[in-house]
Design brief:
Mean pLDDT: 85
Strand order of the largest sheet: 1-2
Structural class: mainly alpha
Low-confidence stretches: none
Number of helices: 24
Largest sheet: 2 strands, antiparallel
Number of strands: 2
Order of helices and strands: HHHHHHHHHHEEHHHHHHHHHHHHHH
Helix content: over 70%
Number of domains: 2
Radius of gyration: 24 Å
Distance between the termini: 29 Å
Amino acid sequence: MTTLLVLLRQRLRRDRLQLAFWIIGTAVLAYSSMSAVFTTYGDVQDRKEILGVAIATRTILVFRGTPNGVDDGAFAFFLLFAFLAVMGGLMSTFLAVRHTRKEEEEGRAEGVAATPAGRNLPMTATVIHGVLANVAFGLLIALALMASGLDASGCLVWGAALTVCGIAFLAFGLFAAQLFRTSRAANSLSVAFVLAAYLLRGIGDAAGTPSADLLHVTPAWPSWLSPMGYGQFTGAFVENDLTPLLIPLAFAAALIGVVFALQAVRDQGASLIAGRAGRATAGPVLSSSFGLAWRLNTSILLSWTAGGIATGLLATSLSSVVNQAATDAPQVLETLRRAIGSEASIEEAFVAVFYLIVGILAACCAVQVGIRARQEEAHGTAELVLGTPVPKIRWLLEYWIVGTIVIVVVLAASALAGIAGAGNAADPESLIPNVLQAALAQLPACLLFLGITLLVFAYAPRATIAVGWTVVGVAAILGVWGPILQFPDWLVKLSPFAHTPVPAGGDTDWTGGIWMLVIALAAGALAVWSMRRRELASGG
């Protein structure tokens, strides 16, 4: 028991800042969102119109939740639960992989296994740590909802649903860590599982059976395949039924049992899915340091490009839906305009919001390129490259170029997907220029995040991962949610996404984009130049 407590204390200490960011940040976002819900949809008639449009068009339900009435709590649950569950799911899966596969990958798990802790106690400590994190996540969000004035019993059911969903995702993250030899692959599968759960829940809601008054929906069977679906089955603030949560809890318990069984028979560092054998000889791409930098970031590019393509398709293929929504419920247009800070038309606003999401995806891709440079340095493989006639300035410059290329590829792919989806629009000729401008408008902000990440890498390399993800995460929340949640204007403007040019007819203001481009180029150039005298910083 003493050894278990030591391991648990180590995990709590190691994750204190990351978990504080996830848990407190999400709770603050939930509280702020409630204020926005009451402000924007305070009238019962407005809520009836929104639910009527959502149920009539169905596509909106994919991005929201299960309609269950117009009362304050039920309407807020419809708008926010799925998004908060995604946040909890990502927190849980990252935690699971970080304390299992990542520890094996870095060689630390072997040292711990050589002590009296063995191989099972560290896994037990990780499970307890993850469960406690999800309990704190659900409880703090429940308290935030209570503070906004919602009924306490419904808030506790909402918090319990988030906790159980998070535990189910934690179990899957632990399982994914058993499947793959690298933490990157395990994290990729875990994120895909969270997003698939969100999509299945959305499909279940969209294919569900509406009530006669168009205020309630009974989800279809795809929701039964998602932990988030069972969270919604609780009917917080209406039924307050905790029984559906037994299913994801049973799923988590069974999967954790499988994980312990695999952990007992699996060799340290091995995985159920064997790593692919490398080629006997290098191909032409690997004949240079630039080719190596490109090859190392190919999987990153493919993942984020797929997300960009899907978002681009949605941006234009749903134009008829959003036009109908804006006609039936004018609040939709006002919400979109508030999100982008522009008096654009409904189609321009809708495209701008979706391509703002594309910009976030491209920025994340760029940040990962900078983080990859740090990982190469930390693992000692960059030293092998720099031991050849490749100077440090050229080495980082090549990563900067690769980062720029991946941004352009993600944006271009999303633009092509948007053009393809525009074929279903009423007036595709007018929509296509908006798509091209909206995609291009994301370039300065994405380059700025790349420059910031490389600048941190040059001056504080060990902080690259934490600062890179924190900066882009906070900027995304402020830039996308800040205007909707009516954050102070000065706070919203701290986000580069708030200065992204918004295509609005012939009145598009590119001033913010030009300034961001200048700053981005200056940051990148300073980062590359600063590498000439910096010593390599190996290790975490």
